[in-house]
Amino acid sequence: MLFARSGIASAWTWLQLPAGASLPGRTGPSDSPVLPRRSRLFAAGALIAAAVLLSLPLGREAMITVRDSWSWSWGEGRLEQRPLNKLAARAEKENDAATLAFVALRTDDPARYAAVADRAVSLNPAFVWIYGTTRINWPLGTPQQQQHLERLHASDPDNAVPVLLAADAEAQRAEDQKKQSTIEEEEALLASDPNWMALMEQAFTAPRYDRYMQHRYQLAGSVWKRERYLPPSVVIEGLWAGAIPNLMNLRTFSNIQMRDAEKAAAAGDWNKAERLLGEVDSFGERIVAAKSTLIEGLIGIAIERIANQERVKLYTGAGRTADAQKAGSRLQQIDDTVATLRPGHDRGYGREQTYRRWGILLQGSAGLALISGFASLALMIFLELLPARFGNHKTLWRKILCRVADYAPATFLVASGTFLLSFLPYAHAFSECFSPSNGFRNEELISDVFGGLMAVPSYVPDGSLMIWFSGGAALVALAAFIVGRRIYRGRRIQTKQTWAGSD
């Protein structure tokens, strides 16, 4: 017991001494004229407290998010595949259809997407909707994609999106066979394709326009809720990666319908003309009502404008003043709707700038915590292992090391606390994005959040450039230190010689 009490007392006394100092009566650099002012206990307490903060669930999520923001920026939008591979392997083992569907929506390989998607649908046919979310940059018209779209259309016959994707594949095949140079030639080519015309007619008369955004948000929210280690970009990517029907094809078919309506009106067949105009107008309304993406909403409004402008033109030419005024009123309503779909109308400039400010603080505090944390550990180890013969020299280099050892642990603790506080707005935003009360849909909020996270990484064009820049800056700093140290020593020697001469 006496030996234990003596050992504990010695350890406590040793902790209360600064780094590099030894217990009284022992040899070591404790006799050095320069030592840190703070004790080992203070440094250890600050480091442990900061480590506890960062090990909290919020701290781990914040570190994953910041790391992901830099890898996402340097990788030009490429997802980190390791967490996806790990998730897919576990889901395959557990026959988890939801997680497999989540992975399928985020893979960049068409072959792997098909395999994982087919496995998810075989386990749970309710996930057949993922067949309508293939990426827009993938090859169109492949036999496997055609089979997927046929299965999706059979399970959801009232939805226009599967039919539009099939029409896009048909249009791609026609354009590949006959290269066209002008828009007029492309329109004429598509108008002469009976398969494409039949598919577009079926899509324009379908009761619904649904790109399954609700399903995607619900799936992403449920998986992320239980897999909090996933980087945010992995979760968000599946929301943006789905294929949008070719919007130019929608405009092309609308123009074809308008010309057919003009011909019908000229022939006196007003029923056919009004039916064609009504189909185009109603289809545009369904796109706007779906609220999938901003660009789709704007295209839907453009389609509505085409139909109602043609109505005003035809009714005015036929002397149907009342119908022309009614169409003109509808056209004014459409123009008023355009303002509500412009970027920044709902979110405002202030929210975007707020997240950017939080992003700068988040990235800055993360960098400060990283530097101060490594500096604290490195300098404490260096001072402890510094041989005694070097510890007895009162040099500028040792003064700098001791001052950094004094303030780096406290800086690490403060930076870690600031890091967590600055991440709170993003944690709340992520929860709000996937909240059931919001219908799992808030595209503008997600854009603002990611814009804030990228406030600093977006200025770094490439990771290799950052590495070379950091290495160059370190070399310049080292050269400046060597030159400054040389000048400082030269002046000290000159001062000593001057005093010696005067004596």
Sequence-ordered SSE layout with sheet pairings:
Elements lengths: L1 H14 L24 H16 L1 H18 L6 H14 L2 H8 L5 H14 L19 H13 L4 H18 L5 H9 L2 H11 L8 H14 L5 H9 L6 H20 L3 H21 L3 H24 L3 H20 L7 H38 L2 H4 L4 H38 L9 H11 L9 H40 L1
Helix pairs in contact: 2-19, 3-19, 4-5, 5-6, 5-11, 7-8, 8-10, 11-12, 13-14, 13-15, 14-15, 15-16, 17-19, 17-20, 19-20
Looking at this protein, list some descriptive labels.
503 residues, 21 helices, 0% strand
Fold and architecture overview:
With 503 residues, this protein is mostly helical. The chain has a domain at 463-503. 74% of the residues lie in helices and 0% in strands. It is built from 21 helices and no strands. The protein has helices at residues 2-15, 40-55, 57-74, 81-94, 97-104, 110-123, 143-155, 160-177, 183-191, 194-204, 213-226, 232-240, 247-266, 270-290, 294-317, 321-340, 348-385, 388-391, 396-433, 443-453, 463-502. The model has no long low-confidence stretch (mean pLDDT 79).
Structural class: mainly alpha
Largest sheet: none
Backbone shape: elongated
List the helices and strands in order: HHHHHHHHHHHHHHHHHHHHH
Approximate helicity band: over 70%
Helices, by number, come to: 21
Q: Which residues form runs of ≥5 with pLDDT under 50?
A: none
Question: What is the strand content?
Answer: under 5%
Gyration radius, rounded: 34 Å
